[in-house]
Each structure stands twice: as C-alpha cells, then as structure tokens.
Amino acid sequence: MECLMDHIVLNVEDDEKMVTFYSKVLMLPPERLEEYQAGRVPFPSVRLNTDTIIDLFPKKMWQKNARTGQGRENLNHFCIALSKRTWEDLLERLQANNIHIEEGPVPRWGAHGTGTSIYFQDPEGNLIEARYYEGHNDSEKCLLES
Asked: Global pTM?
C-alpha cells in the first residue's frame, strides 16, 4: 500500500512559542493562524510541503488524555492519506483483523482541506489516522493533486 503523509500532530504547551518557532525559525508557512487566534478553529497548523502539515494542538485539546507522571506524549497521532478505494480496503482489513476503530468515519481537517478519517492504534498503542479526500480519483495511488 502506498500513501502520503498527510499530517503530524504535536501536543504543545505554549502554542504561541511553537507557532513562532515553526513559522519564523523554520520558515514554515502558518495555516489557519488568524482563525485560531479568533477562536474559530481549535488549532493552528504549519505547512511542510504541498501534501503535509504539522498540526499544533494546544494543551486544552490533549491535557485530559495525557499520561500521568513525568513527561508528556508529544506526538498525538500521525495521518496517512489514501484514495477512497484504498481507504475502504483498509477499513475492511482492519475489521477483518478485529482492529478496533477508535473514532470515525468522521470529517477532519488536513493538508488538503476536510477529508473523511478513521482512527485506530498500532500494536504498541500509537494512534494512526487514515483518511481520504472526496473528489480525488480512486485510480490514483494515494497521490493527491495539489
């Protein structure tokens, strides 16, 4: 199965500091920053490339689910983007292998706008999001148009 990395989600303590670092130091363009600052969206993002973004989840989005004790989980989850057909095949394989779907199908924001996502865990508990974007040709090998 081929796919693209759609986005990575980082749990952040200081969202302003993180946005400044990624946008001013690493020179990654911010996405939805004004909407986030106005309270219209729950988190900002920065763009790595045409296909991939880094979402910066503020503490209010992850603190109730964080592990207790020293340290915190920094990686919230990662997302792979698939064609709709490949996504449907994956969903069938997950169900056939008794892999629990944590959430979804649900609409979620990503590198190409809003797509349809499911969430599940790997054997070591890492959360994976798999999504497709409506309107992308099923014959594409997970490669999304810019």
From this structure: 0.72
